[in-house]
What we know:
single chain; 27% strand; membrane; Transmembrane protein; transmembrane
Amino acid sequence: MFRQGRTRVFVSRPQEENCFMQFLLQLVSLLALVSAPLFVLYMQHSVGETGAAVEEALRSVVSLPSNKHAPPNSIVHVASHQVSPDLISDDAFGLQFEGAVRTRRKTEYCQWMEFSTDESHVERDEDGNERTVTRRTYSYSKNWISYTIPSFAFDQPAAHHNPLRDPFPSKSTTASFMKLGDYTVDGSVLESANDGWVFKKRYSSDAIEETSQSIASLESGFRYIGNGYFYSPYEQSGTEKFLRTAGMALEGSLLDFQIADAVNALFGSCAAGDLRVSFEAIVTTPGNGASVVGKLKSNNRIGIYTASNGVKIGLYENSAETSALSMLSKLLWSARKWLWAAYFATFMWSLGVVYFYRLKPEPSATPVMFSKPSDVYILLLESVALLFATVGMSKVVTSSFTLGLSLVLSGAALFAGSSSDRFRMFLTSKEKTD
């Protein structure tokens, strides 16, 4: 549902804008200068530690039950089609999930969201002084989202009030243990299961009958409405209705009727404060079986394995055909994906640093950024140089001194080359030739 809000006009002096923007820019610049290098340093260290732990695990992992003997506290790999996880239940809704390794309750909230668009222009007042006039138009959209939005800061908070009730928030639940062949897998290992989530779309008539007497139904009015959703309508108290009406009168929205309001009344869109809950589960079956990697403890229990460098390993896959090599490689690949994300973030950070501290003109100068192709070449080249230097320093500190030093020297060479008069003359002559 979409509603048009009101329009406000703000007038500000350039001096006021400059003081605030300079302070904000300095604060953001300070945070930006330290955030990306620290992030890539942390990720480089994390991947190095994970890689060392995976190498250690691959050297000593024992596959059971094909190998009849494994010493206590060793890292083992167990795969079997004989699976029986402990029963998971959601007591608030009176539901049980047979065969589930993990479940996820997903709570969604019907909430108003506020948006605004600005149109600004500079004009002169009676004294000839410049001032910026900004015309800000507000709009509102009501949707199902996964979080609540405080509406007290809205431009029209009474007309678009968001109740913040949250009696049964989203949560994940893991089976306390699972029987896997002759072994018992601890819940701490099962928590690593994160593939194969299935939306629970159908419930038996007995399960639905059970939920009608649940805590969620009796205390918050949840009822099953089909397609896997449990719905709780929001009911305003008499006091809240009075206060909201008074607030709408004060803010001038009491008589603000729009077409969207009529459509909402006719077609029954959700009301702000309504809740809906659905469930997802990772379910294991004897047909698929399961595989785990962890530490062999007493009484054939399998828990979390701690490598010599402190990295904890406990892996679960919803298939009996998954090898230890595949599971450990997946763990390492997952860590490396975050590292590549850190590299990309560092490159974007490098672009910003080079632009603001190397190529951006003075405030009094005419903006010329990207007016010539050479500006783009220099920006990219110096950004890559800064990327190499930053990543290289992180590698020097954490993992590979030789590779890191090579990257630092390469970055310095690129930066020196891009700053040289000969290179800039070459770019200038190329532009004239083109």
